[in-house]
Amino acid sequence: MPVKYLISWNTVIHGYFKLGEVTRTYLNSSLARAALEIPVPSKPNYSSLSIV
Prior knowledge:
There is one protein chain. Helix content is 79%, strand content 0%. The chain is rod-shaped, with a radius of gyration of 19 Å. By secondary structure, the protein is mostly helical. The chain has one domain.
């Protein structure tokens, strides 16, 4: 197996892990923000919803 191929394959795997980590962090923050906004029915925050 060529060394160049091995290095690129490791980079791809690392990229997938990084993407999953970023996606998981983004989803967690979005869910937390939504959970904070849901219990306030008096004035819905439409501006933050349109941004997401």
